[in-house]
Amino acid sequence: MYGFVRHLPRAGLAVCAAASLLAGCMSGPSGGEAGNAVKAADRTETGAAEDAYTLTFFTNNSDRTVGQGKMEQDLIDAYMRDNPNVTIEVETLSPDPQYQDKIKVYNASNKLPDIIGSWGNRSFLKPLVESGALAEIDRGELGDLQFEAAALDSYSIDGKLYGFPRNSDFWVLYYNKRIFAENGLTPPATEAELMNVVSVLKTKGIVPIAMDGREAWTSGIWFDTMLQRVTGTWDTAAQAMDGTGSFDRIGTVEAAKAMRRWVEAGAFGDEFLNQDYGAARNLFGQGKAAMFMMGEWEMGMAADRSFPADVREHIGAIPLPALTGGKGSANDLTAWFGGGYSVSALSPRKAESIRFLKWMFKPDNWARGVWQNGITFPAQRYEDFMTGSESALQRELKTIYDGASSYSGSVSQDKFTPETQKTYYDALQKLEGGSINPETYASVIAGAASKSAAESR
Fold first, then answer.
1. Of the candidates 404, 395, 239, 255, which has an alpha carbon nearest to the alpha carbon of residue 330?
2. Yes or no: is domain 169-334+407-456 CATH 3.40.718.10?
3. Can you spell out the DSSP letters for 337-405?
4. CATH 3.40.190.10 domain range(s) in the chain
5. Which are the contacts of 20, defined by CB distance < 8 A and separation ≥ 6?
6. pLDDT tens digits for 67-116?
7. Where is the signal peptide (predicted)?
8. Is 429 within 8 Å of 268 (Cβ atoms)?
9. Were both Cys, which of 97, 168, 325, 394 would link to 390 (CB 3.0–4.6 Å)?
10. Model's pTM, two decimal places?
């Protein structure tokens, strides 16, 4: 499915860390998360005897000490050790809106880094492809990397591949099992059960659900899920976005009403619209919120030492519950292929950049590393890397994914053109803030979707 933003809660800029600096501040794979990922990797075609060269690598994974940021860095360091003639300079920037703005600046000046973190969705990928900014990747050369075919499709335009997909993403509610047990609560499977949980937690002064309300992409995924829960199908959103249908339907209004119900019930606390990803994550991680609405990529919270043990050791996951009167079920999963990497078409080291990414995505590297270190679900086959010692949270997430009765594919927000996506995001936040009603919301996003479909033809 499509690739929406690989959002991480990190902020800040880490500028161009050259190999010598990285060696001083980052542990190598033998002692870090990528230990298993690189120990079997053989030396690549490049060698110390070749001419020295530098690759520039721009990523939105700003935290290089945990999670995907650390996995990226461990693999980069391992590649440089195996290829002493290669230096990979890393620049990071987050959150994603700032990162994507910097991509636009680089592209406008024809200075796109050799390798960039990217997303296989229309709003991000198509403008870069149409401007000739991205190098085509030969899909026929990737067979040994065991990518899911649909993941490669998500990075393809007009039959041409423009990136290496990284993750298989899906939307869940994380919950603190200790808080639930202490308050006599069980994980909700229906909206009525959720409202009871919200009511109980509010009386105890606990935020029911931590939510990143400042960045509208989270609300976009939530809306798609609620629309499916109302209508029982993913087709309503898909057809609205391709122009064969419309959001100006009763199902959209009912989904918007359901979203307002949750907000008005206090499910997200009082200030969630001013709360960004990092704040929401920390609210849950410090035990001040009982649940956290986010993607499967946060399964690494179970090993995050910045969280107290009585939180990280008691994290579970459930799908979003069914809605009262709705036709969808909790087993219908909002799932898509997440971010990845693309290569600049103007890179003087285009072949070398593609060679590095092929190495990075050898199954023993990225797929093994992120799975066995409990970081995320790769966009490659990973069954061979299951050890039986997966964390309880990993197992719960895998059960949710494997047990789904349907999958959404690309979510709506990634199908909008950049201009119409802004209209969509503005409408979402106005709906959540109560400044427009559900009927107006449905009309506004229907117009944006229709315009987007026409512009994309």
1. 404
2. no
3. E--EEEEBTT-TTHHHHHHHHHHHTSTTTHHHHHHHTTS--BSB--GGG--S---HHHHHHHHHHHT-S
4. 12-167+338-381, 169-334+407-456
5. none
6. 899 999 999 999 999 999 999 999 999 988 899 999 999 999 999 999 99
7. 1-23
8. no
9. 394
10. 0.83
